[in-house]
C-alpha cells in the first residue's frame, strides 16, 4: 500500500511539474501582445476567483496568516513579474533552465542561514551551474540578453519564496496562504497596469489560452496535486522530480513556439540539470541515517 502511494505521489508530482514547465511557452506567446502586468492581473485574478469559488468554506485566516501570506506574495510577485518580463526578451527554454537555478540557490541560502559552510556538492553544483548559465546566455561578443538577467532575478526571488514557504506552510493552512498570495499578486499587477498602461481585456484567443492554462492548471490544479500527494514522496525524490521542469519547458517550447535549440544550449542545459541533481545529493545523504 505504501509503495502504491509512493508511486501515485511521484506520478502526481510529475504531472504538476509538467504543467509548470509548459507555462513558459504559453507565457512567452501571450506577452508578445499583452503587457506582463496585464497578463499577471488576469492570471492570478482568475486563479483567486476560482480558489474562492471552489474552496470558500476551507479558506480561513487570521492576522498572522494574512501577514505571512502577504510576505509570501511579495516573493511570488517578484518571481512571476521578473519571469514574465524576461520572457518578452529571451526564449522559453533558456528562461526555464535559469529559473531552475533556484534549487541550487536554496541550498546555498540554507547553508548561510544556519551559519554552516556549504557542502562540497553545493559548491560544485554552483560552479557547474554558473558555467552552464554562461553557455546558454552568452551570445556573440559575450553579451547577455536582458531577458536572461530578468529571469535570473526571478530565480533569486523564487529561492526566497521556497525557503519562506517551507516555514509558513508548517504554521498555516497551505490553501489559505495560496489564496492570499494569489490575491496579492493580482492586486499588485493591477496597480502596476494602471500606472504603466491600463488594464485591458485580451482579445486574442491564444492569450486567453495562456491565461486560462496558467490559472487553472499551473496555479490551481498543479498546486492541489502537490498539496495532496507530496506527503507520500520523500523531499529528495520530490526535488529531483521538480528539477524536470526545464525539460518539459524545452519540449513545449520546441513544439508550440518552434524554438531552435543549439548545441551550445544543450551543453549549458545539461550542465545546469546535472548541477541541480548534484545539489540534491546533500539532502539525500542527510536523509540516509534517518531511514
Automatic annotation (TrEMBL):
- The yes or no answer to whether the keyword Plastid is present is no
Which classification does the entry list for the species?
Bacteria, Pseudomonadati, Pseudomonadota, Gammaproteobacteria, Legionellales
Cite the EamA domain residue spans from the record: 8-137, 147-278
Localisation per UniProt entry: Cell membrane
Q: What InterPro entries does this protein map onto?
A: Diverse_Substrate_Transporter (IPR051258), EamA_dom (IPR000620), EmrE-like (IPR037185)
Q: Tell me if Membrane is a UniProt keyword of this record.
A: yes
Q: Which residues cross the membrane?
A: 7-27, 39-56, 65-86, 92-113, 120-143, 149-166, 178-201, 207-227, 239-257, 263-279
Q: What SUPFAM superfamilies does its record include?
A: Multidrug resistance efflux transporter EmrE
Q: Which GO terms describe its cellular component?
A: plasma membrane
The protein's UniProt keywords, in alphabetical order, are: Cell membrane, Membrane, Transmembrane, Transmembrane helix
Q: What is this protein called?
A: Integral membrane protein
Per the record, the major location class is membrane
What's the source species for this entry? Legionella brunensis
Amino acid at each position: 500500500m505504501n509503495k502504491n502511494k509512493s508511486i501515485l505521489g511521484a506520478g502526481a508530482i510529475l504531472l504538476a511539474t509538467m504543467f509548470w514547465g509548459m507555462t513558459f511557452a504559453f507565457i512567452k506567446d501571450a506577452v508578445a501582445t499583452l503587457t506582463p502586468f496585464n497578463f499577471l492581473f488576469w492570471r492570478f485574478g482568475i486563479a483567486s476567483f476560482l480558489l474562492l469559488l471552489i474552496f470558500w468554506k476551507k479558506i480561513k485566516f487570521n492576522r498572522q496568516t494574512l501577514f505571512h501570506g502577504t510576505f509570501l506574495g511579495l516573493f511570488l510577485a517578484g518571481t512571476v513579474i521578473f519571469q514574465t518580463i524576461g520572457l518578452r526578451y529571451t526564449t522559453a527554454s533558456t528562461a526555464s533552465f535559469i529559473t531552475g537555478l533556484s534549487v541550487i540557490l536554496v541550498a546555498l541560502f540554507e547553508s548561510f542561514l544556519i551559519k554552516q559552510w556549504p557542502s562540497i556538492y553545493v559548491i560544485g553544483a554552483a560552479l557547474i551551474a554558473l558555467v552552464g548559465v554562461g553557455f546558454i546566455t552568452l551570445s556573440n561578443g559575450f553579451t547577455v540578453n536582458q531577458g536572461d538577467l530578468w529571469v535570473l532575478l526571478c530565480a533569486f526571488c523564487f529561492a526566497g519564496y521556497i525557503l519562506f514557504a517551507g516555514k509558513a506552510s508548517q504554521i498555516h493552512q497551505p490553501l489559505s496562504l495560496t489564496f492570499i498570495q494569489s490575491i496579492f499578486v493580482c492586486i499588485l499587477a493591477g496597480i502596476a497596469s494602471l500606472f504603466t498602461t491600463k488594464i485591458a481585456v485580451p482579445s486574442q484567443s491564444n492569450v486567453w489560452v495562456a491565461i486560462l492554462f496558467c490559472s487553472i492548471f499551473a496555479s490551481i490544479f498543479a498546486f492541489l496535486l502537490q498539496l495532496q500527494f507530496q506527503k507520500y514522496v520523500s523531499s529528495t525524490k520530490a526535488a529531483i522530480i521538480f528539477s524536470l521542469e526545464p525539460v518539459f519547458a524545452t519540449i513545449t517550447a520546441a513544439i508550440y513556439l518552434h524554438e531552435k535549440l543549439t548545441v551550445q544550449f544543450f551543453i549549458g542545459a545539461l550542465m545546469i540539470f546535472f548541477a541541480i541533481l548534484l545539489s540534491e545529493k546533500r539532502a539525500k545523504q542527510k536523509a540516509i541515517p534517518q531511514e
